[in-house]
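lol ok so funny story. i was supposed to be doing the assay writeup but got distracted and ended up predicting the structure for this chain instead. priorities right. anyway since i did it might as well share w the group, maybe its usefull for someone
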Amino acid sequence: MEVPTFSGIAASCAQVAAPAMDAIRQYTGELYSETVEFEEAGAAPTRPGFTEKVCLANYSDSSVSTQPESGNPPLRRTFHLQIALRLGDDAISAAGRHIDKACENFDECDFNSEIADESFDGSAFTSSNTAITMFRVRNAIISVSVDGADASSQPGEASQDPEISALAPGARVVAEAMAGDTAAFLVS
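and the output, tada:
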């Protein structure tokens, strides 16, 4: 029996992010604001057999001192939600190959099958530390990445990159929430 594939992605980033909002609220804590909305992060690339939507939200708190009395409280957390659909006769297999290949693009990558059909948790150490959780359900590949900035404990430094261990839980809980309600943002 052939597994049905998804044929489209919700029109708005608000719809895409809806299943994750409680998880985002819990993870961001004091940075969370009801006024922050997910917005499209530029035009999605066009490739044959592929459709995609990228949404972005930036939660920040300007009231946190960049030179705190103690610790390194978060100043900003940025979420990128990327939904990609493989289309065509070989869509499910192509989506599987896509997630396998994507893992190679990260500095660290740990495959697991804890979310949906398959998933991985990864990290990139480029211009800023970024944690990612990517999962596949049928022909859909969903990527949740989180980066940010923390207050610096060093005099003269405005901010510092958070440790991956501070970002990874955010990517993971948002991915889990989205996997729990794909009907909210994927069209069958």
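The longest strand covers residues 74-86. The longest helix spans residues 164-179.
back to the writeup now i swear
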